[in-house]
Predict the structure.
Amino acid sequence: MSHRVVYHSLFWLVYILIMVLYRGRADGYMFVFTNELIKSFFYGIAVYFNIYYLIPNYLSQTKFVTYSALLILLVVIVTPLSTICLYFRFMNYPEIQQSVIDAQPELFLMTFIILGISTILKIITDWIRHQTVKRELERQTMRSELRFLKSQINPHFLFNTLNNLYALTLKKSDKAPEIVLKLSEMMRYMLYECNERRVPLRKEVNYISNYLDLERLRQGKNMEIAFSLNGNVGNQKIAPLMFIPFLENSFKHGLNQVSEGFVHIQMNVEDTELAMSIENSKPAMPRINHRSGGIGLQNVKRRLDLLYPEQYELNIDNQPEKYIVHLKINLDHD
């Protein structure tokens, strides 16, 4: 038996019990119980016809006038049927039959009220169900986008880092173990530690630092790469890999296309507010459309919209000789 059947059965049972307790002392509990059982049968016919036919086919299709007319017609049809059943039940009690007829207006009103309540409850439950499905789709989308982000680590970045590492090992450089450690920390973070909805900000900052250190090794001496952090990075949490698309783009569409250039990253943390700016030089005539590759700016905005709705500011300043990204996030939002 489905949960819906159980809930609906409990609803009707509670309704009948309330009516019996309310009217039973004056008219007799068994008398009221059998009467309410008959009424509830016809109420149920009207309610489920409304829920499963009228609402999906008319109200949900914004045919409000037609729906209202059919709802009134349903009341006009069902209420007399209920009255007829009650009337024939009391064939040997003329006085009760007359009271049944006199109670017609009350029965019409009660049927209409119950149908109205069923419509309101149907609208509310459909809205809740829609919101639940929407949230689940958003969670699936975010998980898919995070998996996509993990897969987006630039192969050239890895290959060049490994080639540089190989050259350092040939020279028996003291930097080789440090590079291996940084690369290992990055891969561990990406594959294992950033599967949660939020991760500690300090780990994201450490990832950025390691990424930039490896880029310094890869880019050479003619490139200026600077990262400054202001404020206190404590227990704040942030969505994982939030900044990597901007960082990758600053190199892919900036330093990788010039012989001399810079990438300047500044992060300011004040309590639960984080502000980050990424500024990079760019060629006068870019070989590919600036910021068109990688995850894409639209996808980044979509992820921000999903994770931080109305809790972030993103501004892009595309100047002739440099490109600046300003991102502000309220870390307190979850």
